[in-house]
């Protein structure tokens, strides 16, 4: 017969663990000393303990093991296989949730690095419809990049007449239900006059969450990832598919200036 201490040394577990298994009815000693109350285990119980400890190392819970033992299935390999498959699915789900958490943490670190602060404090505003005239870039057919289009537009912005605010430019982002994306760089106008090669769009009345992006424009993507991936889900606000936009005013000091600041208007469902 083997004592608790001997079993603990053989399997490299604590005596406390073995006593707990006894208390919950999972691994019960073959006999208990009448005078000293010592637990004694038979050599033929070693295989059972080995299997219990192995399954515990796989993350199988004590309740599941107790059920297996009670119904005599602790050595039923087919049933054990199903349990391990379920455990594998659970672990995969845990890994995916941890991966998503890791992405959120990394995004927050990146955001702090380029913005220099932790908190994003948006304003909730309702803005009336307005018309913008400018140049358009379309994901499905335009050549070059949006920054390339901005360079061409900057050389022709003087052609736009009757600007509402000549020192305020817009970058309008339009996503349709098929996930095609277009972008218009332009100015708000009073007029229907349309310079050659430019477009006119009307931004509808909408409620927005307005975020300030500070730093180089290359960091806008990280700010938007944080807004859509973290802030909006945590705030309980629902974004609306349609037109969001960037607002460039006197705070815009250049694309590569760390002191540049622009506003990002994200349409949300009005409560």
TrEMBL record:
Species the sequence originates in: Paenibacillus prosopidis
Q: Which superkingdom heads the taxonomic lineage of this protein's source? A: Bacteria
* PANTHER family the UniProt entry points to: TRANSCRIPTIONAL REGULATOR PROTEIN YOBU-RELATED
| Protein known as | Putative transcriptional regulator YdeE
InterPro entries found in the cross-reference section: AraC_E-bd, Cass2, DNA-bd_dom_put_sf, MerR-type_HTH_dom, Reg_factor_effector_dom_sf, YobU-like_regulator
- Pfam families reported in the protein's UniProt record: Cass2 (PF14526), MerR_1 (PF13411)
SMART domains xref list? AraC_E_bind, HTH_MERR
* Molecular-function GO terms, alphabetical: DNA binding
The Gene Ontology biological process annotation of the record reads: regulation of DNA-templated transcription
In this chain the HTH merR-type domain maps to 1-71
Q: What SUPFAM superfamilies does its record include?
A: Probable bacterial effector-binding domain, Putative DNA-binding domain
């Amino acid at each position: 017969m083997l004592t608790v201490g001997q079993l603990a040394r053989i399997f490299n577990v604590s005596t406390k663990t073995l006593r707990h298994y006894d208390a919950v009815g999972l691994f019960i000693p073959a006999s208990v000393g009448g005078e000293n109350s010592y637990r004694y285990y038979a050599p033929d119980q070693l295989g059972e303990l080995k299997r219990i400890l192995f399954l515990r190392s796989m993350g199988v819970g004590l309740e599941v093991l107790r059920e297996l033992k009670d119904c005599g299935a602790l050595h039923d390999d087919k049933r054990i296989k199903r349990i391990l498959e379920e455990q594998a699915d659970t672990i995969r789900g845990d890994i995916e949730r941890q991966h998503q958490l890791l992405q959120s943490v990394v995004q927050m670190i990146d955001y702090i690095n380029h913005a220099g602060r932790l908190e994003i404090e948006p304003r909730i505003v309702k803005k009336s419809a307005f018309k913008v005239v400018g140049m358009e870039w379309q994901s499905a057919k335009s050549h070059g990049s949006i920054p390339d289009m901005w360079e061409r537009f900057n050389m022709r912005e003087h052609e736009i007449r009757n600007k509402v605010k000549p020192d305020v430019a817009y970058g309008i982002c339009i996503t349709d239900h098929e996930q095609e994306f277009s972008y218009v760089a332009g100015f708000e106008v009073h007029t229907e006059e349309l310079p050659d090669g430019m477009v006119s769009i009307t931004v509808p009345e909408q409620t927005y969450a307005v975020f300030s992006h500070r730093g180089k424009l290359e960091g806008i993507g990280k700010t938007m990832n944080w807004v859509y991936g973290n802030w909006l889900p945590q705030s309980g606000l629902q974004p609306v598919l349609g037109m969001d936009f960037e607002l460039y005013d006197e705070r815009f000091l250049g694309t590569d200036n760390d002191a540049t600041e622009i506003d990002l208007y994200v349409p949300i469902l009005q409560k």
